[in-house]
What does this fold into?
Amino acid sequence: MQTTSEITPFVNEPFVDFSSEENASAFRAALEKTESSLPVIVRLHIDGEDCDGGAGTFESTDPSMVSRVVANSAKGNKEDALRAVAGAHKAFGEWSRRSAADRAEYLFKAARIMRLRKHEFSAMMVYEVGKSWAEADGDTAEAIDFLEFYAREALRWEREQPLTRIPGESNELHYIPLGVGAAIPPWNFPLAIMVGVAMAPIAAGNCMVLKPASDSPGIASMFIDLMKEVGLPAGVLQFVPGSGSDVGNLLVEHPQIRFINFTGSMEVGKGIYEKAGKTGEGQIWLKRVIAEMGGKDFMLIDEDADIDKAVQQTYAAAFGFQGQKCSACSRLILHESIHDQFMEKFLPLVEATTVGHPSEQKNFLAAMINESAMNDALKGIEEAKKAGNTLVAGGERASEEGWYLQPTVFTGVGRNDYIFQTELFAPVVAVHKVQSFEEGVEAANDTIFGLTGSYFGKDEDKIARAKIELHAGNLYINRKCTGALVGAHPFGGFNMSGTDSKAGSRDYLGLFLQAKLVSRANK
Ligand code: NAP
Ligand code: MG
It folds into this structure.
């Protein structure tokens, strides 16, 4: 075990430079190795044992080549979930009393091994969810960051807490874990967010039942294998792949679940929040719900912005990973004086997008996650046409081999139009023209969400106003609205984007802890 004094300050895991041929060929080798091992077999993991699921099996397929099965997963049912909760309760007694240093060591060890095998984790995401090399590498780097960061945070939260000293007493405040939580992550950061929502509470001393997203059980099980390898005690992290409405819902309603750590859509998040509000039979607490939900994120480009930079950054934020990031730019708000100039530079970039299987380094855009996601996006495109928005790029499927959608741009979009208001989670950008800074701010804030946003401009007074007036949990100035780094950019949004939590922040572990005051009379 590392002693506390040997633990270096947290630094972000660097991204791999794929322009180096050495790195590129190492990644190609990992892709080949992964591809030849597909489909991977995924099993449940409960009380330290791999097992089959009561609901049979299900498959995850490569969205960019749908004939390829990536994972063949056991499917848990309600009984499996019940067993997992019961086992996690048993494990909690011992786990919750371990020192933070002891618990953190499992995370540090997992981070070290993941770093050594990072290409293998990334390669799996290329096939299972359609991430480009850089996007997959970013996901793995963030997972490593979460492990490293939350391990250090567990140590910090355990330290002596400052209290007002009064005569005649010795007072102490300790942060203790809550109990058994449900981790319900999305498929779009299938490693990073899954690791974050499950392992932060575990670092804090809780036990977790993890139900991975049904589109990404393969990468989830790679992480479970890693935690087995580092010897995490049985029952601390229970793994129950299965459907959201079945296994997920049972966990949410279970009276012995103390808290739910969810990241996903607003629709599902709202349902979870409501159901968790009911106190079940024998339940002796009110559940905590941490829900990180959707976004309809903006980039507001003012009249004095650096257009070339804004164009590049908008392109990356709108179309990186097919626009399937909660932070993706889907509302592009342009000052009228630069609107045409911006579009003249932006559209050629969009047209030049390389679309194809993400295992090939040259491809920037791969397929959307599944058929229904693609159909939702196509429906949004139809709504935009009906509303009279002007289609200036894309709008159609790009290949029948998978769920490919062309990078799509509509101009002339009004503030109340469907594609300006609804999260499509797709490579679709709605361009809205404004006459002034004030109108731009109003348009940017005209949303039920409040996750990320960017302001591009040079005037210091306007920047100062933008910082105050733009209402987004993650607001960026003169840079894109995607690409938050653990520790540097604590992440999470306002309003319908969630419960105002910040992943990768100093506050985060507190969401899974409760404070116990011990006051002792000196005589
Ligand atoms: P989703 O459909 O809401 O699913 C998220 C998770 O919830 C999955 O594990 C899903 O399981 C589960 N689930 C579904 N129905 C459930 C129910 N009734 N009870 C309990 N669990 C249930 O979201 P997604 O499609 O995976 O991810 C995309 C969404 O996530 C977007 O809206 C995006 O903006 C949001 N997101 C937000 C953040 C953030 O930090 N704010 C980050 C990433 C993504 P199944 O897979 O089995 O359905
Ligand atoms: Mg979904």
